[in-house]
Each structure stands twice: as structure tokens, then as C-alpha cells.
């Protein structure tokens, strides 16, 4: 047991931390804290409720997966997602909603997943993408990875919750006539 009380050490370390130059603090954090790559992906729905999947050149297994990519330094996740969709398949989206965030330990990656609605057609524009296709949620490719299926299920549930909330907040026809 220490001769000096815990309160002394707490105050002393706090004082040292506050007096340390910011650059040195950032360097210390950089050395001691884990680093992760961050990606933004999306479950994109069309007007018929189908899900957009891309057949990637560099993806393991079947190649089918959700659209998205890695964030650039200082880039916001939503901005990165929109950039990736534009670059890879020329797609613009609307009604972007956060669906989930997860850590992928083995890859040291944080994945931010959105759900949204397509505003136009998806056409491959990048060498990374072989094909873009729309699938009904219950007719996904058999060889789609389990983790991708789970992401779609999670985003679909979030999307349906949002749609039901939006419908319940909309004024009913009877209330419009009351005004």
C-alpha cells in the first residue's frame, strides 16, 4: 500500500496531464491506444423494397456484398458512404439512417452501417465492381456471407421501424378535414 493517499496521486496525475503539451498527449494516446480502420456501408433499398448488392472483384467467397468503403482521414462516415456509392456505381441516395455500428476484431475495423433509398440506377463505374443487382430480402444469393445477411436483416428492421414511425406521425385524412 502506498504511503501517499490515492487522492494525492489522482490530483498530481491530473495536473501533469493538464500541463502536458497537446502534441505530446496525442503522441502518448497514439502509442498506447488501439487503432482501427473505419468503413461505412449501406443497405440500399429501391422503390420495390429490394436490396442492392455488388459483386466485388476483391471480395472473398462469392464476391457479393453490400456497397461501401473505407473513410479517408478526417472524412465523416456519411460523406464517405456517399463518395463510395458515387465512385463505384454512380448512385445517389436519400433518407440515410444509421442502422448499426460494429467492431470487427480480426480486421481491426469499425463498420458503420446505414440504410437508405436509391435515387437513381446503379451502374458499375469502378474496376472494383463486376456487377450491381437488386434482390428481394428473402431471395438473396445463396453464397452471400452470413455476416452480410445479418447486416441486411438488422438494417431492414431499422428501416421498417422508421417507416412505421413515419406513417404514425403523418396526419390522418380525418384530421385534415377538421381544420
Account of the protein in words:
By secondary structure, the chain is of the alpha+beta class. It has one domain: Nucleoside Triphosphate Pyrophosphohydrolase. It has five helices and seven strands, in the order ααββββαβββαα. The chain has helices spanning 6-19, 22-32, 77-89, 146-169, 173-177, and strands at residues 37-45, 51-56, 64-65, 68-70, 93-104, 109-118, 129-135. The strands form two sheets. The chain has a four-stranded mixed sheet. The chain has a three-stranded antiparallel sheet with strand order 3-2-7, with no helix packed on it.
* H and E string: HHEEEEHEEEHH
Estimated radius of gyration = 23 Å
| Shape field | elongated
CATH third-tier fold name = Nucleoside Triphosphate Pyrophosphohydrolase
What is the correct CATH architecture? Alpha-Beta Complex
Please summarize the sheet with the most strands.
4 strands, mixed
Number of strands: 7
Measure the end-to-end span: 75 Å
The tally of domains stands at: 1
Structural class: alpha+beta
Low-confidence stretches: 170-179
Overall residue-averaged pLDDT value:
86
Figure out the total of helices. 5
CATH class: Alpha Beta
Strand order of the largest sheet: 4-1-6-5
Helical proportion, percent range: 25-40%
CATH 4th-level superfamily:
Nucleoside Triphosphate Pyrophosphohydrolase
Features:
179 residues; alpha+beta; Nucleoside Triphosphate Pyrophosphohydrolase; 4-stranded mixed beta sheet; 3-stranded antiparallel beta sheet; 7 strands; disordered C terminus
Amino acid at each position: 500500500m502506498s504511503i501517499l493517499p490515492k487522492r494525492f496521486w489522482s490530483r498530481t496525475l491530473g495536473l501533469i496531464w493538464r500541463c502536458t503539451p497537446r502534441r505530446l498527449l496525442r503522441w502518448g494516446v497514439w502509442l498506447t491506444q488501439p487503432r482501427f480502420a473505419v468503413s461505412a456501408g449501406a443497405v440500399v433499398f429501391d422503390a420495390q423494397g429490394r436490396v442492392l448488392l455488388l459483386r466485388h472483384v476483391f471480395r472473398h467467397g462469392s464476391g457479393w456484398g453490400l456497397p461501401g468503403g473505407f473513410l479517408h482521414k478526417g472524412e465523416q462516415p456519411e460523406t464517405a458512404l456517399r463518395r463510395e456509392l458515387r465512385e463505384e456505381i454512380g448512385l445517389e441516395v436519400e433518407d440515410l439512417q444509421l442502422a448499426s455500428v460494429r467492431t470487427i476484431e480480426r480486421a481491426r475495423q469499425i463498420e458503420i452501417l446505414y440504410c437508405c433509398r436509391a435515387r437513381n440506377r446503379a451502374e458499375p463505374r469502378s474496376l472494383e465492381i463486376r456487377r450491381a443487382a437488386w434482390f428481394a430480402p428473402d431471395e438473396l444469393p445463396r453464397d452471400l456471407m452470413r455476416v452480410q445477411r445479418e447486416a441486411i436483416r438488422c438494417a431492414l428492421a431499422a428501416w421498417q421501424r422508421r417507416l412505421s414511425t413515419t406513417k404514425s406521425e403523418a396526419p390522418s385524412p380525418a384530421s385534415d378535414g377538421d381544420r
